[in-house]
Amino acid sequence: MSPHKVLVWALMAQVSLAHAADGGLPGLGSTPADAQVQAEVKKVAKGPPPAVKMECLPNPVLIGQPVVCELIIIHREDVTLTVTSPADITPLSAPPAQAHGEGLLKSVRRLQVIPKSMKKVHIQELVIVWTEADGGIGEYPVSELRIPVQSMMTGVTDPKPRTYDVPVLDSEAADLQSEKKRFFNAHGPIPYRVTNWPLLITLLVLVGGAVFTLLGIWLNRWLKARQTEPAPWVDPRPAHIIAYEALDLLRSERLPDKDLFEDYYVRISEIIRAYLKKRYGINGLEMTSEEIRTWAARTRLGPDPERALTDFLYETDIVKFANVKPNMVEIEIITKQAHGLIELTRRSETEQGGAADEGTREQAALNGGTTQ
Length: 372
Fold this sequence. Notes:
Blueprint: H1 3-22, H2 26-29, H3 32-41, E1 51-57, E2 61-62, E3 67-76, E4 80-84, E5 90-91, E6 98-99, E7 104-113, E8 121-123, E9 127-131, E10 137-141, E11 145-147, E12 149-150, H4 176-187, H5 197-226, H6 239-253, H7 261-280, H8 289-299, H9 303-322, H10 328-352, H11 354-367
Parallel strand pairs: 2-12
Antiparallel strand pairs: 1-3, 3-7, 4-9, 5-7, 6-7, 8-11, 9-10
Helix pairs in contact: 6-7, 6-10, 7-9, 7-10, 8-9, 9-10
């Protein structure tokens, strides 16, 4: 065949196909049989879908126990039904359809599935296909249903809950007592333990409270051990200024006018003793009068200050310890003696200069006090 004829035949074939697609040349593009098949495939059911109800028992189910599902389908008499299901769902024999009102039938389809694990059983992918008399086809997907699976012991041919009231075999019911003895001999007594939660919670609370209490006590002691007590406040003013101020305050209280003579002498003695502690660093408030005299003689305050201190201690001791009641003149004299003693020791320390200061510092170091 020449190349010219091949080209002509190719062009004719393309034209024929184009006309066949447009319906111009039915003989070349398709056959009447193909057109009929296409029409049948595309034909859809015109009538209403059937009414479907699915029930599955038992629900819940034990492992290994079959679940039987019934599909109750109400449909027209001129309709044929087919149920499609996945591979794990097995169809069972179905009874014949029964009349259900005028022009309707009731068909029942039975399906079975056996659970093999604790996962829920899924009844799904069920499709009801109905075919009408004129060839129309419709599909109805059944709603999914999930059935829970109860725990059950494995390795049992017929897995059912067993008790002494329901023996493993019916023949054992006649001798129930022997079955109980056999079980006791094989397994022994079963321990019965109940957790006493109220008692356990109470003990936990008590132990926790004791632990936190001990922890709090230890933490409090640890914090107190790390704390340092603040040093007592010390008046920075000179000793004679503090003593003069205390004497003025004592005179303003007018204790002799209230017949508190002993209190007045005790107070004025404490003022002079505190002055000696501040000035020379001795613990005058804790020392006896004799100890103060011995200290004065050893320190060599000088004849006038030493005499004045001795007279002052003598006069105050008479009133404090001998219950001698002084008169107003004697009270004025003891007050002037206190002022004079302060002035004498102050003047004596000024005249002695550095030597007196050095002795004062040595005495303060021995007694652990402070000096001015």
